[in-house]
LOW QUALITY PROTEIN: T-complex protein 11 homolog
Amino acid sequence: MPDVKERAARKEPGAAESASRESRGGNTRESASSARGTDRVGSTVARARPPSPQGPRRGAVKTAPRGPVGQGGLRTGPTSRCPQPSARAKLPSVTRGAPLPPSPGKGHLGGTPSSHRLGMMERVHDASKLDCQLEERSLSSSSLEGKGKDTMPSDFWEHLKEQLSAAPPDFSCALELLKEIKEILLSLLLPRQSRLRNEIEEALDMEFLQQQADRGDLNVSYLSKYILNMMVLLCAPIRDEAVQRLENISDPVRLLRGIFQVLGQMKMDMVNYTIQSLQPQLQEHSVQFERAQFQERLNKEPRLLNHTTKWLTQAATQLTAPSASSSDLQDCSSSAGPSPSDVAVPEPLSPAMVLSQGFLNLLTWDPENEEFPETLVADRARLQELESQQNQLTILASVLLVASSFSDSGLFSSPQFVDKLKRITKSLVEDFNSRPEEVMQSVSEQVVEEVHQGLESMGLAALSSENTTSLVCQLQNIAKKENCVRSVIDQRIHLFLKCCFVLGVQRSLLDLPGGLTLIEAELAELGQKFVSLTHHNQQVFAPYYTEILKTLISPAQTLTTKGGSL
């Protein structure tokens, strides 16, 4: 095969120079040209790697002009010689200034104007969330990239293998794949990276590759090495290991399949970073947009707020009932450490108190109760995730509290031991809701074993047989809803979340109640998610909540302090 580097050099003098070195996060990495020797096809390339998906150094996803695309930017048009999927789901395009499509897996709404408005509101709402991320699993199995991820053999890849193994080889499917790969690589570039773009165009010149295929001397393995080198330059550091694993694959079909998989991950990295980079603009406009969309629906459906009104009424009733603890927020204020001048939490109800209680009630919502507040429909799935996370933290903290009460204090002063015990317990309690007794039996056995090993390794006194039996019994009792340890921990986590709503996460973490200190990091994550969700909802629907709460709280009760208004 003619050297692509020579062809590039003839077109652009100096195009075959070795790449310069650039700094990435304080560390210097050489370009693929110098790091990989003569395998490297092409010319100078600027280091243009996005960082990890949490913060790539990229501004936008640029897609090369082409026809209809499937997920991951793969062309949907079938060829007569390559078996192609009949349907392709499109990868959401991300354009600055335009609302983002819904997150993966969201159900398709009906075609009525009302459902369309609701769908648009949910799309903007989802995109404005700080935790909004598209994930690799969103790739449809009907797309080429999705096909590349399937573990079961597919007709396409089997057909490709047959073509390349034929004598003489048939390169029709290979050319189609190379064309798709080229377009994906180009879509990962920024506009200013014109030299790198030219290099890719030269190295993967489809007209030239077609001529080679017609002569029967298309070197697929050689081109795959070039693609891998280019992926090293463009991928986020978190994808380095995946790309390196591909370098050890010698089978051309397996290699192409792996390339498609990692390219799909790279596109998700870029899309997610673009979403994150647009967060400030999205959040700025989403409040007004969501409120306007909801008002349009309310104008057409005057009873739209019925469930919301009932939800807030129940929260107010809970707070005024004799059994309700009117000192919750006072406890919250004292536990977090602010002075009375910072946060005043007197006895009378306030809109903030009622709303915080209402939000907490959503974390214990009966799934069979269809009267879910209309203002939180878009967040129902997130609230269910928070409920699941909170329940798992309740079990985790209960286990740690019981285990620590039977052990020498030195054992649970070891961060390494606590972290290990937390990892083990978290993995075991994932199925707690479906089979609590069985799960807690496994937890008790594992925890007792870890405690024995920990005490022995630290030279501490071992548990007596009596204490061991008691520890196992108390751990297994956590499976019961009425278990006192579990109930206390659950109440304290709820109080912590209420404090987060009123005071913020950091102030609420200053003085955690007993039993929660060992899960401080997990509580901080839960609290941040809860605050992010509830505060955004409060911003959007504050006018509606205020009008409803006026009917529930008398003017004499309404507070004029920070916590008194929405």
Remarks:
- The two ends are 71 Å apart (CA to CA).
- The first strand starts at residue 22 and ends at 24.
